Amino acid sequence: MNDMRDLYEELILDHNRNPRNYPKKPTDCNCTAHGHNPLCGDEFIVNLTVEDGVIKDIGFEGAGCAISTASASLMTEAIIGMRVEEAEKLFGEVRHLLTDDDENEQQEHGDEEVLGKLSVLKGVKEYPMRVKCATLAWHTMHAALLGDKDTTTE
Amino acid sequence: MNSNPHMLEQNFRPDTEQALDLQALRADFPALHQEVRGHPLVYLDNGATSQKPRSVIDAIRHYYERDNSNVHRGVHTLSERATLAYEGVRKKVRNFFNAASIREIVFVRGTTEAINLVAQSYGRPRFSTGDEILITEMEHHSNIVPWQLLCQQTGATLKVVPFNEAGELDLDAYHELLGPRTRLVAVVHVSNSLGTVNPVAELIAAAHQLDVPVLVDGAQAVAHRKVDVQALDCDFYTCSGHKLFAPTGIGVLYAKEALLADMEPYQGGGDMISRVSFEETRYNDLPYKFEAGTPNIAGVIGLGAALDYLEPLDMTAIGAHEDELLHYATTQLQALPGIRLIGTAAAKASILSFCIEGVHPHDISTILDGEGIAIRAGHHCTMPVMTHYGLSATARASFALYNNRDDVDALVAGIDKVKEIFQS
Question: What ipTM was assigned to the predicted interfaces of this complex?
């Protein structure tokens, strides 16, 4: 029970109940992608307005589990106003938080200062089958910025 | 929600728990006796795969330790032992399904391969534009996609029998769709996502009136019901060993001998031939014509051990025990607010799919796992069924002979935890 609370922290439950920037497609949206986790059927569309390399606005649509929904919601809050390369760097931090990604071996964990609220996702690391849930929106955001229309976490 | 409180009443036999010595049965399955995340394992994912009794594990081990050798070729002692054991299992499978002959028993990797074999060896040389293959809306992807591939290859068309809100086939639609263009019916015996037991004997009889052969996907049925292929009069029956307490990677295609004799080989290679030259190859007798290459010998031996395990147990008693358990679980879950049961057919077996309002099935499964309870969450490889109900996924508890009321009680307590966490 207690370790389940480490995964389903109040912040995650809150963002699942009341996702921010959802459902939302900014009127001047110019980057969008559809993300799908075929394993569980989670599907999100991430919509961004990017001007001069800056994410001016962001929203998402679709449906998924609490982990994927909360992660998507937290992501929109975190990257709004960021430069594209900062958002991509943050994706790297999140991925590192969730997996033992060797790319950033020098760091013990994702940098909590950089991650801020996103650190709440760290509990997912204990549930490898759920990591794809937590990264779905991030992969979709990444695909949208690259101009790919579709992505999956398979 | 939309379920009938009297469901399963016809199968409800409260005295069967005594008829099977459950504690003794549980002791036979080593994997059941472990802790998961600090709790005793409650294994309710038998629809995905069953656990294996000690005797199956021992049989595989004995084969590799003593008899390991190739079958049908060597004349040395080990090869003779392996061949006798391997072919002995074919007789056991024949008995288990009451097939007319061992020539009707083809070993395959599993249900999926069995269906693909029938599609390619039976359907592909025969079907063409204008022909129709009739399946149902509740089929597993493995009884959809092989037919779609066949349709692409031959120009045939796939027709689909719908089901109602309870998850029962629309039999009127079946009779309407069954027609002069129908070349094959492929139907699931027990639905893996709804638990519906389809009236396959009735479906087969109707198809046979039009001389249409019927394939039955028995993957989810064989561990829960006595299957008599001659009584059903099915033309093809398919199943996987691993849902029947045997290892993964072994399954059975039953097919009527006359059909098999007339079918093209599925794969070419060793063992399936009687004579090969560069000008001409003559195929081996049935069923070897369909078993190219070195087979999964250990898997077959494990399957034989699983059938030996079941032999004294009586499939009817096992089915009655599971029906009682399903009835108990259904009643318990119906009493909980915010639970929606998916699949409430009058005739069901061993499967309980459900949703909790406001909680995604994957979150249900993770929280239950934290309590040591293994269920399945997802679309169960039946995406059309999910679409029917407007869902992306369900949570599914599925029972086997070794489950008991304590397992159901643990599930109910686990669901309370899920609701507690999500309502906080």
Answer: 0.89
